[in-house]
Amino acid sequence: MRSGLPLVPKLYGAEEENVTIWRRFLRRELVHDRGPKCERAGCQNDTKKVGFHIHEGIVKKNEISESVPNWWEIFSEYNCFILCVSCHMNKGLPRSEFYEMAVERYSEGTVNEWLESLPFKHVFQPPEEDNG
Ligand SMILES: [Zn+2]
Predict the structure, then answer these.
(1) Which residues make up the environment of ion ligand 1, defined by Cβ < 5 Å?
(2) What is the mean pLDDT of the chain?
(3) Structural domain boundaries of the chain?
């Protein structure tokens, strides 16, 4: 059951051996919170017809070796998005777009804090904060 905590694996005791169960829980909760509709801007596809996937938008699974401890921490609500199958198959989604979506939803501080909390190196670097 949902406890009101952010959907971050370590807060729920998710570990490598139950990562599949965690992903299923995360997917269900995100679909419940955001609705079963594609989060890609401008997408008109009907997810009821084409189906939907959970997508790692900022830090991608294929960039993290499964030998890296705690690699499954990428499966958090800050990094995961609901996409229709058609958009998910399309490789042309810039990660900066997902980052902006996450910032809009959770705030820049929260998303950057999560990125900095990851115990492994990753490709994405958030843009410099605008202090002006
Ligand atoms: Zn779509």
Answers:
(1) 38, 40, 43, 45, 84, 87
(2) 90
(3) 9-117
pLDDT score at 119: 86
Cα 132 to middle of ligand 1, angstroms: 35
Q: Which tens digit of pLDDT belongs to each residue from 9-18?
A: 999 999 989 9
- Cα of 57 to ligand 1 centre, how many Å? 13
Ramachandran region, residue 100 (left: φ > 0; alpha: ψ -120 to 50; beta: rest): alpha
Residue 106 has pLDDT above 90, yes or no: yes
Q: How far is the CA of 81 from the centre of ligand 1 (A)?
A: 11
